[in-house]
Specification:
The protein contains 6 helices and 11 strands. The chain is an alpha/beta fold. The radius of gyration is 18 Å and the shape is globular.
Length: 249
């Protein structure tokens, strides 16, 4: 049982969210980063779903992740597209390169994978230290959607293989504002089980006010929020995703 993205979780992620697939976030980040000529850090780059389109747009983006499996898939995708970015295995709560980046981006709600408020505070402090004065931080935070019932089994096919994903249990801790799931990944061929993997998957939820306060407490200014990857959409009860923008003073 693992917190991390193992091999099967990574394979399913790559099947479910292939390079360049977008929920409006790829285009949004491309627009928001247009004009930035300095280095950009994506601390939870995964398989490169957003990193690679940004590189193809001419931006100087470095990728980072704690999962060696995710980074291995990203490294496979990049040469296929003539790309050779800097990719490193590191933890966003501790990695700091003082004043090295003009922007730090955390798309796709990856900040909520950090376990607890202290970890989020540590990560935001590390981001601020790694930004140049005036540097931009852009972070996605999904709106809380309380789901307490098991979800249908999902599956994907590629060649002779079938991957299945079952959400076995969901619980919500209102005091910690955390939702925990057990995810069981299985890989099949010709009706036989090839491999299986169990992942303990916990998400830290935030309200608009809580995350705004956290950004302020960690030294960011100029905080604004948009909803659902639309610059003119103010976040509200109907929003699925909030994108926070902040500046290192």
């Amino acid at each position: 049982m693992s917190w991390d993205y193992g091999m099967l979780a990574t394979e399913v992620y790559d099947l479910d969210k292939p390079i360049g697939s977008s929920f409006g976030d790829v285009e949004y980040y491309r627009r928001q980063l247009a004009g930035i000529t300095g280095r950009i850090l994506e601390p939870a780059t995964g398989t490169g779903r957003i990193l690679i389109p940004l590189l193809q747009a001419g931006l100087d983006v470095e990728g980072m992740d704690t999962s060696p499996q995710m980074l291995a898939v990203c490294r496979q995708h990049c040469p296929d597209r003539g790309l050779d970015p800097e990719l490193r295995e590191a933890d966003m709560t501790t990695f700091v390169r003082p004043g090295a980046y003009q922007a730090v981006i955390v798309p796709a709600g990856s900040i909520t994978l950090l376990d607890g408020r202290l970890a989020a505070r540590q990560a935001l402090t590390a981001f601020r230290q790694s930004l140049v004065p005036g540097g931009k931080l852009i972070v996605d935070v999904p709106a809380l959607r309380l789901v307490t019932e098991p979800e249908p089994v999902r599956y994907w096919r590629r060649g002779p293989f079938v991957w299945t994903l079952q959400t076995m249990h969901i619980e919500y801790d209102p005091a910690a504002s955390q939702q925990t799931r057990f995810l069981r990944y299985e890989k099949w061929r010709d009706g036989g089980l090839v491999s299986t993997e169990l992942q303990l998957f916990r998400l830290q939820h935030w309200s608009l006010a809580e995350f705004t306060r956290l950004l302020t407490e960690t030294g960011f200014t100029g905080i604004t929020v948009t909803g659902d990857y639309q610059e003119t959409h103010q976040p509200g009860p109907g929003s699925d995703d909030w994108t926070f923008h902040a500046t290192r003073p």
